[in-house]
Design brief:
Length: 140
């Protein structure tokens, strides 16, 4: 999945299949374009049980040390391809697992002219809510 997706379903539609008992998302509007470093809804385990969270959930995880060489800031990583790397082990436990919600996602397609065009994908025209498994942590 590319680094752009959307959630157009309301909180109630998210709470039920995600079995979220606590809603910490506030007044969540439809989110037609979620890019890296944008706030995004997730369902995770909280102190009071499974919760729907929004405000502080940002797309990305801290970068491995080798990726930070020569850089002053950490923009984060949005594609974790090697879960065997020791860098990720600290976040693979149940306390850091979450469900990321989406109604549709995008991929870039290379056009015959060489430019990239955003192509959107959903399960059907109604764009039903779907989830994928992810990990989360607090970081700046």
């Amino acid at each position: 999945m590319c680094n752009l997706y959307s959630v157009t379903k309301g909180q109630q539609a998210i709470r039920e299949p995600g079995r979220a008992m606590v809603d910490r998302s506030g007044n969540m509007p439809p989110l037609p374009g979620i890019f890296p470093d944008y706030g995004a809804p997730i369902v995770r385990e909280g102190p009071a049980g499974r919760e729907l969270a929004l405000a502080l959930a940002r797309w990305g995880m801290p970068s491995p040390i080798f990726a930070l060489k020569g850089k002053k800031t950490d923009a984060g990583v949005t594609n974790i391809r090697n879960d065997k790397s020791p860098h990720w082990w600290r976040w693979l436990g149940p306390e850091n697992r979450c469900l990321v919600l989406f109604s549709r996602f995008s991929e870039n397609e290379l056009t015959p002219g060489g430019s990239k065009q955003t192509m959107w994908f959903a399960f059907d025209e109604d764009r039903p809510l779907a989830f994928f498994a992810w990990i989360w942590t607090r970081w700046t």
